[in-house]
Amino acid sequence: MLTPQELQAARDTVIPDVIAGGLSVLFCGINPGLMSGATGHHFARPGNRFWPVLHRSGFTPRQLKPSEQNELLSYGLGITNVVARATARADEIDAEEFREGGRLLTAKVERFRPTWLAVVGVTAYRTAFDDRKARIGPQERTIGTTRVWALPNPSGLNAHWTAQTMAEEYARLRLAAQAAPSD
Q1: What is the pTM of this model?
Q2: Residue 133 contacts by C-beta under 8 Å, 6 or more apart in sequence?
Q3: Active-site hit among 41, 42, 48, 81
Q4: What is the Cα–Cα distance from 34 to 65, expressed in whole angstroms?
């Protein structure tokens, strides 16, 4: 268990992406929380539903722990963030930092060319890509040949979605990714 001091010390920490060329899906969080900053693992807060939802949706054969994040690469999956620095809350990031994150994310996607970019958090997607009308699901926008999908944010604070309804939406993406022709 981390102390409040250890969590605060993780503020502004940048955790490495889990990424490689040619992924099927690159999941993109809003930004790391303090628990992720302190541990170096994406979606590390115990109440975050990313890892259970990823498994329930069929992306992984078992529920991975945040410390096993690098195993995602063997399934053709990866993780990055719109904004790289760890904060206590996403509202600590202003619109300009989100837009800059969107520009950096675009360059990263152009470099690594995943089949799908899945942004977990439609509000972050709207701000980062200046697309106020975006809804959950596949987007019109592409980045090079990469298609874009907005997914519900798996944070425990997102009460609009249950783990089950999130898993159903993530499974829609998984099916689209499986159907996509690879280069």
Answers
A1: 0.94
A2: 126
A3: 42
A4: 17
Give, for all 183 residues of the chain, the pLDDT tens digit: 789 999 999 999 999 999 999 999 999 999 999 999 999 999 999 888 999 999 999 999 999 999 999 999 999 999 999 999 999 988 899 989 988 999 999 999 999 999 999 999 898 899 889 999 999 999 999 999 999 999 998 876 777 899 999 999 999 999 999 996 654
Indicate if 160 belongs to the active site.
no
Q: Which CATH number fits domain 4-179: 2.60.40.1120, 3.30.365.10, 3.30.70.1050, 3.40.470.10?
A: 3.40.470.10
Has 81 been annotated as catalytic? no
